[in-house]
From TrEMBL:
<protein>
    <recommendedName>
        <fullName>fructokinase</fullName>
        <ecNumber>2.7.1.4</ecNumber>
    </recommendedName>
</protein>
<keyword id="KW-0119">Carbohydrate metabolism</keyword>
<dbReference type="InterPro" id="IPR029056">
    <property type="entry name" value="Ribokinase-like"/>
</dbReference>
<feature type="domain" description="Carbohydrate kinase PfkB">
    <location>
        <begin position="4"/>
        <end position="309"/>
    </location>
</feature>
<keyword id="KW-0067">ATP-binding</keyword>
<dbReference type="GO" id="GO:0005829">
    <property type="term" value="C:cytosol"/>
</dbReference>
<comment type="pathway">
    <text>Glycan biosynthesis; starch biosynthesis.</text>
</comment>
<dbReference type="InterPro" id="IPR002173">
    <property type="entry name" value="Carboh/pur_kinase_PfkB_CS"/>
</dbReference>
<comment type="similarity">
    <text>Belongs to the carbohydrate kinase PfkB family.</text>
</comment>
<dbReference type="InterPro" id="IPR011611">
    <property type="entry name" value="PfkB_dom"/>
</dbReference>
<dbReference type="GO" id="GO:0008865">
    <property type="term" value="F:fructokinase activity"/>
</dbReference>
<dbReference type="InterPro" id="IPR050306">
    <property type="entry name" value="PfkB_Carbo_kinase"/>
</dbReference>
<dbReference type="InterPro" id="IPR002139">
    <property type="entry name" value="Ribo/fructo_kinase"/>
</dbReference>
<keyword id="KW-0808">Transferase</keyword>
<keyword id="KW-0418">Kinase</keyword>
<keyword id="KW-0547">Nucleotide-binding</keyword>
<dbReference type="GO" id="GO:0006000">
    <property type="term" value="P:fructose metabolic process"/>
</dbReference>
Length: 321
């Protein structure tokens, strides 16, 4: 049987968002739970589109950890790589967008279960059976999770998986911007596919431009595909043989949380079926149109996981334009 599993490695947590908009964390009258964590969102995005997905990471052995594992299973994601820590809690993040446009964050990670994942605990069978191994950068911030992340990448690579990296910058979690940049770049050359947003591009290059000469400073000869997502403006793509851009879809956006994860999940879902899309520009453009549509749909509803589209919803939007 052809390998078609997409294994996503890293954090799964609960965002607590205010019940009303435009308030500070201190002013919020209450919060609702919004399950997330970029790698978990990607796994669910893949499964919702009919792909085979697994999540590898650690949760707290508590009500919230069990709830999150249940969400993975309910969405058809294999949770054989999920561990539970009896000594630490599931990570929480309180997040708000204030009326003045400033984002406020408060993290409960001191340390949270995801940060305590060790190399020895990794479910290597899940990792070895993956055709695509996807990860972010939050799992690089502290030990022992950092070493577990590096080990998982190595095992996946040796088993022949494509490595997919979305650095997913969360600056407040890092000790300093310099260490974020340094650690994010420390595994840069090992990926086959990398997706950055325009904001991450600016952070990593130090330049406020999405022109090719700036993007290409991040290109490495080993890469199969480098992507820059541009919010409602769509995306740009770079391979060793061709490059180009695709417009986004105009939709009624209410909350952009998870758009990038939907985009990545949709892209990987298609690549795992046919890796020739990495060599044939017309095929790649078709896949990225699909990924743009999935990203766009995710912005039309509140929250990440509830908003991730299925195949029929994506096809519907593709027909419209
Ligand atoms: P991230 O969520 O990682 O910051 P982006 O905001 O660039 O990434 O979004 C990823 C993709 O989702 C975009 O390339 C685009 O296809 C789609 N998308 C994001 N925001 C919008 C929007 N407001 N309208 C339409 N499509 C969007």
């Amino acid at each position: 049987m052809a390998k078609d599993l997409i294994a996503s490695f890293g954090e799964m947590l609960i965002d607590f968002v205010p019940t009303v908009s435009g308030v500070s964390l201190a002013e919020a009258p209450g919060f609702i739970k919004a399950p997330g964590g970029a790698p978990a969102n990607v796994a669910i995005a893949v499964a919702r589109l009919g792909g085979r997905a697994a999540f590898v990471g650690k949760l707290g052995d508590d009500e919230f950890g069990r709830m999150l594992a249940g969400i993975l299973r309910d969405n058809g994601v294999d949770d054989g790589g999920v561990l539970f820590d009896t000594g630490a809690r599931t990570a929480l993040a309180f997040v708000t967008l204030r009326a003045d446009g400033e984002r406020e964050f408060m993290f409960y990670r001191n340390p949270s279960a995801d940060m305590l994942l060790t190399e020895a605990e990794l479910n290597l069978d899940v990792i070895k059976s993956a055709a695509v191994f996807h990860y972010g950068s939050i799992s690089l911030i502290t030990e022992p999770c950092r070493s577990a992340h590096l080990k998982a990448m190595e095992v996946a690579r040796q088993a022949g998986a494509l490595l997919s990296y979305d650095p997913n910058l969360r600056l407040p979690l890092w000790p300093s911007p310099e260490s974020a940049r340094e650690q994010i770049m420390s595994i840069w050359d090992q990926a086959d596919i990398i997706k950055v947003s325009d904001v991450e591009l600016e952070f990593l290059t130090g330049q406020e431009s999405v022109e090719d000469d700036v993007v290409l400073t991040l290109w490495r000869p080993e890469f199969k595909l480098l992507l820059v997502t541009l919010g409602e403006k769509g995306c740009k793509y770079y391979t060793k043989d061709f490059r180009g851009s695709l417009d986004g879809f105009a939709v009624n956006t209410v909350d952009t949380t998870g758009a990038g994860d939907a985009f990545v999940g949709a892209m990987l879902r298609k690549i795992v079926d046919d890796q020739t899309v990495l060599q044939e520009e017309e095929k790649l453009r078709e896949v990225l149109r699909f990924a743009n549509a999935c990203g766009a749909i995710t912005t039309t509803k509140k929250g990440a996981i509830p908003a991730l589209p299925n195949e029929a919803e994506a096809v519907e939007l593709l027909k419209r334009d």
